[in-house]
Amino acid sequence: MIKIIDRYILRELIEPFLFGLGAFTSIMAASMILFELVRAVILRGMPFLVAMQIFVYRLPGIVVYIFPMAMLLAALLAFARLSHDSEVVAFRASGISLYRLMIPVLALGLFVSLINLTFAEIVVPKSNKAAKNLLLETTTKHTPKLQKNVFVPELEKGVLKRIFYAETLRGNTMRDVIVQEFTDGKLTQIINAKQATWRKETNEWTFNSGTIYLIAESGEYKHLIKFEEQSVAIKYTPADFYIGDRNPEEMTISELREFITLKEKMGVEVTDFKLQLNMKTSIPFASLVFALLGAPLGLSPRRASSSVGLGLSIIVIFVYYILTFLSMAVGELKLLTPGLAAWLPNILTGGIGWRILSRATVK
Question: Is residue 76 in a domain?
């Protein structure tokens, strides 16, 4: 059962949290998305409506970083207001410690972290992929991009299902295509085709002038089928083949784990992918860490105004992300494990928050 004091502090947190969401979203979206899209509209002639669609698709990827920022601002402003009005003093005089006051703050921080993790897992990969597909579709309408030696594996529940290879890919058309099909890890079918074309209306690839080789368990050819046109259901679009490797931002945690497993089997360096995998959980849980840091930072009455709180939040966030970049760089050099490198900023920030809270408690 939520006590009166918990409800009271949660009400103090909600308003600045919503204010932070709006303020930081405006700042980040303008600096990270809008400027690039405005240049694309003016200099490259991108249609305005397409630019707006890409903006909407990219916004969820920004919001993942906004939640921790808003949580920091909420905790900082809420406790600054309580301190400014001497309510913290009144609470402590009545026997309520700062540790007790932190319970609803940390509860909200944990709740926001779980919401952010769910959002990053379900919404962000799909929206990033949609933005990339739309951008590629718009670009290839004018100047089709040429990609050579396209190689993309496809996994299903951690097991290799297909391997795609094309000598060239231009626009929506691949030439000299080879598709190897696997069942339970064994090669069962090979498709060779002169050309394959993506049909957006059916979400299928149409293969032309090709041959299907069926492979027996012994590894020998057991059947051969020639065709002039054959539709093949492949989950990858031309955009996926253009990058050669899938972007971690377009994969869920489980998909990225499977991708890393395959790359390791292929002998590919996967340190960066493992860092990205751990970042998919460490960034959402920064909301909990910032809740622990923001509340004791806000105990100074001078930080009660929104402008001062916003400014201090920006400084803290700037330092946090500088620390994140440094930690990631050290992880890339393999001086730290990927897990430790991704979580080190949270550990240090949480430790600083706990230290400030402990010192404030003994005063």
Answer: yes
Residue 45: domain span = 4-131+272-362
3-class state of residue 58 by DSSP: helix
**Distance set, CA 253 to CA 142, 198, 202, 231, 250 (Å):** 35, 28, 28, 31, 10
Note the pLDDT tens digit of each residue in 46-84: 788 888 888 888 889 889 999 999 999 999 888 888 887
End-to-end CA distance of the chain: 31
Residue 127, token pair as written in the block: 């929206």
CA distance 231 to 147: 22
| Beta strands 221-232; 146-156: pairing state | unpaired
Q: What is the DSSP string of 278-341?
A: HHHHHTTTHHHHHHHHHHHHTTSGGG-SHHHHHHHHHHHHHHHHHHHHHHHHHHHTTSS-HHHH
Q: Does 10 lie in the same domain as 116?
A: yes
CB 47 within 8 A of CB 106: no
Q: Contact 78/253 with Cβ under 8 angstroms?
A: no
Q: Quick one: 148 and 244 in the same domain?
A: yes
Position 142 scores a pLDDT of 47
Whether 260 is covered by a domain: the verdict is no
Number of domains the chain is built from:
2
The CATH number covering residue 183 comes to: 2.60.450
The span from the CA of 221 to the CA of 12, in Å, is 71
At residue 141, the 3 state secondary structure works out as coil
Place of tokens 């916004």: 59
What mean pLDDT, rounded, does the chain reach?
83
Interval 315-346: pLDDT, tens: 888 899 899 999 999 999 989 999 999 999 99
Residue 165 bridge partners (DSSP): 151, 178
